[in-house]
Write a structure and sequence with these properties.
Elements: E1 10-11, E2 14-17, E3 21-23, E4 29-30, E5 35-38, E6 42-44, E7 53-56, E8 62-65, E9 70-77, E10 82-84, E11 88-98, E12 101-102, E13 108-110, E14 115-117, E15 125-126, E16 133-137, E17 141-146, E18 148-150, E19 153-154, E20 157-172, E21 175-176, E22 189-190, E23 192-210, E24 217-218, E25 224-230, E26 233-235, E27 240-242, E28 247-251, E29 256-263, E30 265-268, E31 270-271, E32 278-279, E33 284-285, E34 294-295, E35 303-304, H1 312-315, E36 344-354, E37 362-372, E38 376-378, E39 386-389, E40 397-405, E41 408-412, E42 419-421, E43 435-436, E44 453-456, E45 467-470, E46 481-483, H2 490-498, E47 506-507, E48 522-523, H3 530-538, E49 546-548
Parallel strand pairs: 1-4, 2-5, 3-6, 5-7, 6-8, 7-9, 8-10, 9-11, 10-12, 11-13, 11-14, 12-15, 13-16, 15-18, 31-43, 34-35
Antiparallel strand pairs: 16-20, 17-20, 18-19, 20-23, 21-23, 22-24, 23-28, 23-29, 25-26, 25-29, 27-28, 30-39, 31-38, 32-33, 36-37, 36-40, 37-38, 40-41, 40-42, 44-45, 46-49, 47-48
């Protein structure tokens, strides 16, 4: 293949290079009005000079090997595209007439004064690896179009910035698929996202991405808002969304992150202890239930893979509010977390209550979630804070939480003890935001002392020994009270309903509300039986005692 290697070329008209344009430590200058039409590859280890243009006009794919140096003005008119083999830079203008520039793992930089025109379907910087389209900045930008896409999908981004600039750069890529770290139960989201980087900007920068409708939309488009994710934290600060133009955007508040579209959500950190499985000596709950076979909640032989509170056995007592998406654990490995403190104990039922809504304590939404041995209540992935999703009125603000369980009495905060909630996921377990029912002062819990019990803990709580709040257990028939005698008592549910009135019967293994000590066995006699837990642990060995659930409305 022929190569041209020159020390100096002065072009005053169109000049066609039918083979490669190869510049090796030479001065190559294209004067005003001149165009070098290249039908082969472009290779240089120096900047191309002058105000003229390089036009990629081949009929087969052309390679660009600029080794990070600058082409002042570049046009592509090649349906077979061009491929970056090294980093490159545009000094003044980039024009897409036909075809794409495939970046692979290499960056294309756009000088601060440079323009890009002609971007559209089939004509853009194709992101196919780690390479970014990087805009250099020395002045404010307003909706500067960065024509990026992936595969055959054109998904441009628009940069707006304000402030001061010191060797400033803003980089963007675009990826197919939703962000892998989106909240696990998000209801509506985009199946595309724009990873970004920024440096040297003192002020603000925001990016808006244009998605393809309906291909990129999962769920309800009208519920989408713009989000920026930095690390594990999501923020909708400065968000924009426009279903008419198919765009979402957000402030880019960190050096690296991702812009995408999600429904508005709140990440809620909650902690609680269940009396039935709590062990005072360790300060942890037992996790016998998770060793049951992993499968559908419709079988009481399984640890439920899907939300048990939607089953007929429980659904009337645990009605979901504004939540039609069935919570489903993706796989059995979720139950066995890396730290034994974080192994999953059981499913719990949460009620998020909005203090701003009349009468001031309205259930905004319910969620079924998982509780770990140390009391952390997490989403279906076993680690993330629980998210409440997709409601128009779901905004940052003060909320309280109620924690309920299928054979325990619920426990709730009082209205005067709200927590400020935002979408920031990793921050949901920080002390200022977490609802820690284990250690909260009694005056901040609904129903005060009668609504829960306290048990010793090795390190948490106050006094000697340390004590923590624990949800009352023993509510085998999940009717909101724990009793051994009189009508609708839990004794009869265990002995008569579950064990067919035979005190010698043992059912094991089983996932049942009658298993009030949560050891996957229902029994009335012998060691570790449910009768003793009900009568002795829950009712203080007094068959006339009654524990009554105290939660708001």
């Amino acid at each position: 293949m022929k190569k041209i290697s020159l020390f100096f070329i002065l072009c005053i008209a169109a000049f066609t290079v039918k083979a490669q344009l190869f510049i090796n430590n030479a001065t190559f200058q294209i004067q005003t009005g001149a165009t070098v039409i290249v039908q082969g590859d472009v290779t240089s280890n120096v900047d191309i000079l002058g105000p003229g243009k390089v036009l990629l006009g081949g009929s087969a794919n052309q390679n660009i090997t600029m080794n990070g140096f600058t082409i002042p003005n570049l046009e592509i008119n090649n349906a077979a595209n061009a491929t970056l083999l090294t980093n490159a830079r545009i000094g003044s203008s980039m024009l897409f007439t036909n075809g794409k520039i495939i970046q692979g793992n290499f960056d294309m930089k756009i000088a601060d004064v440079a323009t890009i025109t002609g971007g559209a379907a089939g004509k853009y910087f194709q992101i196919s690896g780690t390479g970014q389209l990087i805009k250099e900045l020395s002045a404010n930008a307003t909706a500067y179009e960065l024509p990026v896409g992936e595969g055959t999908n054109y998904r441009p981004a628009y940069l707006t910035s304000s402030g001061t600039y010191t060797a400033a750069q803003f980089g963007v890529r675009v990826l197919a698929g939703s962000d892998a770290n989106k909240p696990p139960m998000i209801a509506s989201y985009l199946n595309t996202n724009w990873p970004v980087t920024k440096s040297g900007i003192t002020g603000t920068a925001s990016l808006s991405g244009q998605y393809i409708d309906p291909t990129d939309v999962s769920g309800t488009e009208s519920n989408l808002v713009g989000y920026f994710k930095s690390g594990t934290d999501w923020s909708s600060i400065g968000e924009t969304h426009n279903a008419a133009t198919n765009q979402v955007g957000a402030l880019v508040t960190a050096a690296t992150g991702v812009v995408s579209g999600l429904n508005k959500f709140l990440a809620v950190g909650t902690r609680a202890f269940l009396q039935g499985s709590y062990v005072a000596g360790t300060g942890l709950m037992t996790d016998a239930l998770r060793t049951l076979p992993f499968g559908p909640a419709s079988s009481n032989a399984n640890f439920p893979q899907d939300d048990p509170y939607r089953q007929a056995l429980y659904s009337a007592a645990f009605p979901h509010v504004n939540n039609v998406a069935i919570e489903t654990i993706p796989n059995a490995a979720v139950l066995d977390q890396a730290g034994t403190n974080d192994d999953i104990v059981d499913w719990v039922f949460l009620q998020l209550r909005n203090l701003a809504a009349s009468p001031g304590n309205t259930i905004q939404q319910t969620r079924s979630a998982l509780i770990q041995r140390d009391g952390d209540i997490v989403d279906i992935d076993g680690v993330s804070p629980v998210t409440f999703n997709g409601l128009a009125g779901l905004v940052d603000g003060n909320y309280i939480i109620t924690v309920r369980h299928r054979n325990h009495l619920g426990l709730s905060y009082v209205q005067s003890a709200p927590k400020p909630l935002t979408e920031s996921s990793s921050l949901a377990f920080t002390p200022a935001k977490v609802f820690d029912l284990r250690t909260e002062a009694q005056g901040n819990l609904f129903g005060l002392a009668a609504a829960h019990t306290t048990l010793a803990h090795p390190t948490l709580g106050n006094g000697t020994p340390n004590t923590v709040n624990v949800l009352w257990g023993g509510n085998a028939n999940f009717n909101g009270n724990v009793r051994f005698s009189a009508l609708s008592n839990d004794r009869d549910f265990i002995l008569v309903t579950t064990l067919s009135n035979n005190p010698l019967t043992v059912i094991s293994p089983i996932y049942s509300p009658a298993d009030v000590n949560m050891n996957k066995v229902v029994r009335w006699s012998a060691l570790n039986n449910d009768r003793d837990f009900l009568l002795i642990n829950a009712l203080g060995n007094n068959p006339l005692n009654v524990r009554t659930q105290a939660i708001p409305n």
